[in-house]
Description:
By secondary structure, the chain is an alpha+beta fold. The protein has a domain of 236 residues: Nucleotidyltransferase, domain 5 (2-Layer Sandwich). It has 17 helices and 22 strands.
Amino acid sequence: MIIGVDIGTSLTKAVVFDSAGVSIAQACTPSEVHHLPGGLVEQDLDQVMDTVTTVVREVASQLDRPVTALALTGQGDGVWLRDAEGGAVRPAISWLDGRANSLLAKWQADGVAREVFRRTGSGMFPGCAAAILSFLDKNEPEALDRAAVAGYCVDAVVQRLTGEITVDVSDASLPFLDPATRRYDEDAIEACGLGHRRSLFAEPSPPKAVFRLDKSGAALLGLPEGLPVTAGPFDLPASAIGAGVRRPGDGILTAGTTLACQVLTRSPEFDREGEPAGMFLCTPAEGEFLRAMPAMVGTASIDWACKLLGIGVAEIGPLLASSEPGAGGVRALPFLSNSGERAPFVDASARAQFSGLSLESDRAELVRALCESIAYAARHCFEAAGLDGTLYACGGGVRSAEWTQIFADVLGTPIVIPSDPGVGARGAVLVAAEALGAPFDAAEWASHARTVEVVPENAEFYRRQGYADYQASLAAARGLWRL
């Protein structure tokens, strides 16, 4: 009875699975995300803790046996500053935040971003810890002075529940960890001007680390003091594990707030002269890594389109079904985030556009053009990450059969979709079971899935024309973007 908890950006979920990997109890509740003027995006740690308390207590009440462990995963990146007791010294800064846009552009111009990439394999973006901490060091130094640790969402929750200051190796990967050694690259920290803040970085916990609920954490959740707690990996690698990514070359598409494209590799080597973008993530298994390209163009773009057009999300599928590949000549670039794009290229000034519009263009073509453009972005990411095996998918976006079909056709490969939506929590539970010495059959857990096959004529159109048009539009737009 391991409770898996996935602390997402906008939603916290708790799930319990049976021995075959089928969920038998689940609960979810929304988190508050504060979008402030100037591209600032923040969250309140106390409110996030309230969501964890709510879902864990609700799921525990549904069980007829005692809870044996708690397995945590959740959003990565951003900065969650805390004091030695786990109290927030300021609101958490989300990975969606854009306050460091100009700083990141400066680092790209003066070579700092490339130097860090050469050392760690991770491309920095405005919402990563390095850019945010450097911004705070210049503009809010007193906040850093008050902090004992500059961490992430999952380890912030772990500190509140167990009293431990730690960080999972996956969270620590971006941007300062050398993937080959799993240790911080001190020169990368210095390159970002953060050497004097080095004490804020918790050392990554060893593989299979297990923590324990302390007295206050137990009281908060209504669970026994001393209950085992595992902390990570964060949601991207947790989803890969939960979906069934096992062999080098296999990948996973997460169509959520982030459009995360990841590919498993057993080599810590990367193209040090390539475009400094994406992430090189350490996994719980030593000697295995994920080349991750988490683009900023996920389901938030669809929410924007729904609001603009005055429609509900449920109407997206019928609109896609009523339109043809190519969207009647309407094309889009999907870069709607205030902080630009972070994979497979980094540009804080990246912005969206529609072209090919006429008086005859309708809502269906606008929606299809946007959905196709996000699928093209996924193909761009997977080409950079090196996908050549089985592709899995999860996230809210793949609940739409029509959009999932577009992804399969644009990517030109079948997509395996786990039947249970709690893929991140599933991965966290599998990691916890391994750490506790009671592993489940991961292959059996991954067997509950369906496959979306490619429609050959659609795939041929996207290969021959659609993706080429997207690449040409992107190349032209990158020369025009300005902060």
